[in-house]
Amino acid sequence: MRLLFALAALIATPAFAQDRPAAAPQGAITPVPARPGDPAFTVIAEPVAMMIAAFDADGDGKVTRAEFDAGLKHSFDVIDTRHQGWLGYIAYSDWQERWMGDRNTVPSPFEVDRDGDNKVTFAEIADRFALLFARFDADKDGVLERKELVTIRPQMQGPSGGKGKKGRGPN
Q1: What's the pTM?
Q2: pLDDT value of residue 25
Q3: How high is the mean pLDDT of the chain?
Q4: Burial grade of 113 (CB within 10 A; 0-12, 13-18, 19 or more)
Q5: What are the Cα distances from residue 99, in Å, to 54, 85, 136, 170?
């Protein structure tokens, strides 16, 4: 009888565990789950675009090249606490997490560290981010507006292509 009870408890354990959501690691960003009827997201901002938007020093909704350069330098200096002029890969990951929200955002340290010396200098970050500035500056006017920092995605339709049952149109 004890064996039967122990076996039943063991089998039921996964079912009980599913009732409680797993705790997120401390500091982790937990996405808000979509609910039935919620509209699909159509505007997306890359983490680096959010960082660039934060460089808007005067609050006019635009990031000039001067604001961009000053913001990038400030973000680097905050992490370079030893004032060495370079970040190791772990410190670079700290920089990514602080300024872009996650340690795994792009550009990766391997992409930025052009000479492969395992040190990411401010000059290397500035060179890589100059390419990002140029990519985001769609109208090539030297100013990044919010509309240039977001990506518009079309809403995804269901497997029937937005039509009703068996592709016959809405019911």
Answers
A1: 0.65
A2: 53
A3: 79
A4: buried
A5: 9, 18, 18, 46
Q: How far apart are the first and last CA of the chain?
A: 57
Tell the burial category of 57 from Cβ atoms under 10 Å away from its Cβ (0-12, 13-18, 19+): middle
Encoding tokens for residue 12?
A: 């039921």
Encoded amino acid at 168, one letter: R
d(CA 95, CA 101): 9
Tokens representing 19 are: 């009732």
Cis peptide leading into 107, omega within 30 of 0? yes
3-state secondary structure the chain: CHHHHHHHHHHHHHHHHCCCCCCCCCCCCCCCCCCCCCCCCCEEECHHHHHHHCCCCCCCCEEEHHHHHHHHHHHHHHHCCCCCCEECHHHHHHHHHHHHCCCCCCCCHHHHCCCCCCCEEHHHHHHHHHHHHHHHCCCCCCEEEHHHHEEECCCCCCCCCCCCHHHCCCC
Burial class (CB in 10 A: 0-12, 13-18, 19+), 141: exposed
The CA distance from 82 to 94, in Å, is 14
Residue 166 structure tokens: 């068996």
